[in-house]
Write a structure and sequence with these properties.
The chain is α+β, with helices and mostly antiparallel strands. The protein folds into four domains: about 200 residues, Heat Shock Protein 90; about 70 residues, Helicase, Ruva Protein, domain 3, CATH 1.10.8; about 170 residues, Ribosomal Protein S5, domain 2; about 50 residues. About 35% of the residues lie in helices and about 20% in strands. Strands 5-4-3-6-2-1-7-8 form an eight-stranded mixed β-sheet. Strands 9, 10, 11, 14, 15 and 18 form a six-stranded mixed β-sheet that branches. Helix 2 packs antiparallel against helix 4 and helix 5 packs antiparallel against helix 10. The protein starts with 9 loop residues before the first helix and ends with a helix.
């Protein structure tokens, strides 16, 4: 038995458990591959201060085999890093960084290469060019037993159509379907949450490239990196930090290795223990570290700074929804930054609502009510809003990335179901989603998003997160409720006015018989009554 024991590489583990990364069926495999490549492109462009322009192509080669291509105008990748970024699991710069970013674990794009290699036997083809460098065309595979990249071809291109950028190509076994939780749905939602991005999309079997134009021309503010907050550090991590710190004294360690800890707070924490300010951090024993940890938890420390976050913003959420949703009303709410486990986060909510039915009531500047036929959008737009007799669409986002799967197990969904939507004019059964032609967008911006799995498909139900989501939903819901009640009032008045207009001629005939007036006088009287009704009507 001892001879049979051997080390397992991380790539071998995920090769056998690829469902953990979102490759559990052919349809999700295609979506996950596109998602990881697009996330990397958006992150690279934003970090370099470039307005993203991304091209996505999917070509069907056989019944269950596709070739995907994702190209961006980002800063490009230096040659030495290409093989590690695309061909090695758990390799990246964002895992230890405490600032908002789409990627976190350094798994996604290399896992896509691993899946493609397992299902087709072929690796990925990467073309990348930096602003001052040359374009490199590299064919890459992965040694899954050693979790190491293997370069099979390395060419230097004399000319490339982009001044700078990266192109990722991969063949994989997959299935393409339209509708909910499809690649089409993902790209549309990405355009909503990233209105500063232009996306060119060529679907399988289509000859026309669909263009999602950017709605704003300003790049989101680049979030700053912060130090760990004392409340977010557990005992084991605190012991490790004590061993690795460059600070000479304990008081310096608390001030320099944590955020929101000044000299007074550091002295207050140390005073609650048996340690000294000039204790060497590397010599703190486990029991002393435990006492230090407990003292930190009992000390009142300010919440961490929020310059590490880059929320979408109310204006951009509205612009994104208006760009992709043909709705009648939009409501947006943004909560102040909050904290869970020492990690700052911020919740944003947007609601797009469309009046059920084909008719719309419009109120002119002069207060006149008119009735017209409603112009419906495309099939995609109707799908995004949902039908009036079906549950609302929930558009879930984490750091601007759409979450399409595991909706039932997501904390966002639980918050929507726990909100009393009847108070805001929507139909809702107990313990269920509200019903109506609406889309509810929920976005969480955080330095570390608590996903329920490595596939990054659902948010864990932390009480602090659920509370903030529910408060944001209620705030946006109140705005929606005011609009719906006003619409019902206008509709009721329009109905009453219709009845009055219908019977005005009969009123004129009755007055003619009572007063004995002529037909001409009767018509003048009816016209005066109609004019009086228009002038005294209240909205």
């Amino acid at each position: 038995m001892a001879l049979a024991q051997k080390e397992i590489s991380v790539s071998e583990f995920f090769a056998k458990n690829r469902h953990l990364l979102g490759f559990d069926n052919k349809q999700k495999a295609l979506l996950t591959t596109i998602k990881e490549a697009v996330d990397n492109s958006l992150d690279a462009c934003e970090e370099a201060g470039i307005l993203p322009e991304i091209s996505i192509e999917i070509h069907q080669l056989e019944e269950d085999r596709f070739k995907i291509m994702v190209e961006d105008n980002g800063p490009g990748i230096v040659k030495a890093q290409i093989q590690n970024i695309f061909g090695k699991l758990l390799y990246g710069s964002k895992f230890h960084s405490r600032r908002q970013s789409r990627g976190q674990q350094g798994i996604g794009i290399s896992a896509a290469l691993l899946y493609g290699q397992m299902t087709t036997g072929k690796g990925a083809v990467i073309t990348s060019k930096t602003k001052r460098g040359k374009a490199h065309h590299i064919k890459l595979q992965m040694d899954s037993r050693k979790n190491k990249p293997v370069i099979t071809s390395d060419d230097e291109l004399k000319e490339w159509h982009l001044k700078q950028g990266t192109r990722f190509e991969l063949e994989l076994e997959a299935t393409y379907k339209r509708g909910l939780r499809s690649v089409d749905d993902y790209i549309k939602q990405t355009a909503v949450a990233n209105p500063h991005c232009t996306i060119n999309y060529l679907a399988p079997g289509s000859e026309e490239i669909r263009v999602y134009e950017r709605a704003v021309k300003k790049i989101p503010d680049r979030p700053d990196e912060i130090k760990p907050h004392p409340y977010g550090v557990e005992l084991g991590e605190l012991i490790r930090m004590l061993r690795e710190t460059n600070s000479r004294w304990l008081i310096g360690f608390l001030q320099e290795d944590f955020c929101r800890v000044g000299k007074k707070k550091a002295q207050e924490i140390i005073k609650a223990t048996k340690l000294n300010e000039r204790t060497y951090p590397s010599r703190v024993a486990r029991e002393e570290a435990d006492a230090l940890y407990r003292a930190i938890q009992k000390t009142k420390i300010s919440a961490p700074p929020t310059n590490c976050l880059s929320p979408i913003g109310e204006n951009r959420i509205t612009e994104g929804l208006m760009k992709e949703c043909d709705a009648d009303f939009y409501a947006v709410s943004t909560r102040p930054p909050s904290v869970y486990r020492g990690n700052p986060f911020q919740i944003e909510v947007g609601i797009a609502w469309s009046k059920p039915g084909d008719d719309l009531l419009e109120v002119s500047n002069k207060g006149k009510i008119t009735k017209k036929r409603k112009k419906r959008g495309t099939t995609d737009t109707e799908d995004l809003l949902g039908n009036a007799d079906e549950p609302v669409r929930i558009l879930r986002f984490a750091n601007r990335v759409p979450l399409l799967s595991q909706q039932a197990g997501c904390g966002f969904t639980k918050s929507v179901m726990q909100t009393a939507w009847k108070n805001y004019g929507l139909t809702q059964s107990k313990g269920a989603l509200p019903v109506g032609s609406a889309a509810i967008l929920i976005h969480m911006a955080s330095v570390w998003v608590p996903f329920t799995s490595e596939a990054k498909e659902a948010i864990a139900s932390y009480p602090e997160i659920l509370k903030e989501v529910k408060l944001a939903l209620q705030e946006a819901g109140r705005k929606l409720g005011v609009h719906i009640r006003k619409g019902k009032k206008v509709a009721s008045e329009f109905q009453k006015r219709t009845y009055i207009e219908q019977y005005l001629p009969h009123v004129g005939i009755g007055l003619q018989e009572i007063l004995g007036i002529s037909n001409e006088e009767r018509e003048n009287l009816v016209e005066k009554l109609r004019t009086s009704m228009e002038s005294t009507r209240k909205i």
